[in-house]
Design goal:
Blueprint lengths: L11 H17 L7 E4 L6 E3 L3 H6 L19 H11 L5 E3 L1 H8 L5 E6 L2 H11 L5 E5 L2 H7 L8 E5 L8 H15 L4 E7 L3 H13 L5 E7 L9 E7 L5 H16 L7 E7 L1
Helix pairs in contact: 1-3, 1-4, 1-9, 7-8
Length: about 270
C-alpha cells in the first residue's frame, strides 16, 4: 500500500470536499425520514496533523490551518458546521469524511464506512467507535458498495474517494458510479478526483455522463502554485440537493481567499453538467 491519506489530511481538497459533504448532509437532515451515508474508501477516519506522515508533506498548513480559526458572523451554514466538526476533534487532529458524517447523523440515520487495508480499517473502527449509528467495514469499496444499494432508508449520500494510484482507476470509478446509479438513482453521489490536466478531468466527467449518470454539479478548486504537486481537484455531485449550488457559491469566496498559494486567490468554480 503506497497511499496513506495521512499525508494529505486537511489539505485544500479535503476542505472543499468536506464542506460539500456537510452541505449535503445538512440538507438531508431537513426531513424527518432517516438516511444512510456510505463512504466507499473511508481511510482511517481520524488523522494526527502533528504526526510524522502529516508533517512530512505539511499539506494541512495550506488547507485547514488557514480556516480553523475562522469565526466570522454570517458564515454559510455548511462551512460553519464543518469547522465546528473539526474543532470538536481538538488541536492537531483532523476528521476524515466518515468521522465528519458520523458527527452529523441523527439517532435514526446510519453510516457505513468501507476501508480495504487492514491497518487503516482498524483505525477506522476506533474512530467510529463512539458513534452508535456508524459501522466500519473492512472490504474493497469497489466490490462492497454496489451490494449496499439501494439502502433500506431509500435516502442517502454516497462518497466515492479512492486514491487514484492504480492504473485504470479513473475508468473503474466511472464504472462503479454508473452501476451504483442504476441501483440507487435517487441517491446523492459525491465523487472526488484529482485534476492533473483539464482535458483528463473533462474526459473523466464526460465518461460518467456517457454511462448514464445525469443531473450533476461539478465543483473544481485550483489553489495555484507548483504544478509538480497536486494543486487542483474536482468533485462531481450527482443528484445535488436543492440549494446545493447556491450554498457552494456562497462558500467559494471565503475558501478562495484563504486557500490560494503565492498570495493569489484560489479558483473555485461550480457548474452544472448535462
Amino acid at each position: 500500500m503506497n497511499y496513506r491519506h495521512a499525508f494529505h489530511a486537511g489539505n485544500f481538497a479535503d476542505v472543499v470536499k468536506h464542506v460539500a459533504l456537510t452541505a449535503v448532509i445538512l440538507h438531508l437532515r431537513k426531513k424527518d425520514t432517516p438516511f444512510r451515508v456510505i463512504d466507499s474508501h473511508a481511510g482511517r477516519g481520524l488523522y494526527d496533523l502533528n504526526g510524522l506522515d502529516a508533517r512530512r508533506t505539511a499539506e494541512a498548513e495550506q488547507g485547514i490551518a488557514r480556516l480553523v480559526g475562522l469565526d466570522e458572523p454570517g458564515l454559510p451554514a455548511s462551512l460553519a458546521k464543518y469547522l465546528d466538526c473539526v474543532r470538536q476533534e481538538g488541536d492537531g487532529a483532523y476528521p476524515g469524511s466518515a468521522r465528519i458524517a458520523a458527527r452529523l447523523l441523527r439517532a435514526t440515520d446510519r453510516l457505513t464506512a468501507i476501508e480495504k487495508h487492514p491497518d487503516e480499517a482498524e483505525g477506522l473502527r476506533r474512530a467510529l467507535a463512539p458513534f452508535a449509528q456508524a459501522k466500519a467495514v473492512e472490504a474493497d469499496g469497489y466490490e462492497r458498495l454496489p451490494a449496499l444499494l439501494p439502502p433500506s432508508e431509500r435516502r442517502g449520500v454516497i462518497l466515492v474517494d479512492p486514491p487514484y494510484e492504480a492504473s485504470g482507476e479513473f475508468e473503474r470509478v466511472a464504472d462503479l458510479l454508473a452501476l451504483s446509479f442504476r441501483r440507487f438513482a435517487t441517491g446523492t453521489y459525491l465523487v472526488w478526483f484529482p485534476i492533473k490536466s483539464a482535458a483528463s478531468a473533462d474526459a473523466f466527467c464526460g465518461e460518467m455522463m456517457v454511462k448514464g449518470v445525469s443531473g450533476a454539479i461539478r465543483v473544481d478548486v485550483d489553489v495555484g502554485g507548483d504544478r509538480d504537486r497536486l494543486v487542483a481537484a474536482g468533485l462531481l455531485v450527482v443528484n445535488p440537493p436543492h440549494g446545493f449550488a447556491d450554498e457552494m457559491n456562497a462558500t467559494a469566496p471565503v475558501l478562495a481567499s484563504r486557500l490560494g498559494r503565492g498570495g493569489s486567490l484560489a479558483s473555485i468554480t461550480i457548474r452544472s453538467l448535462q
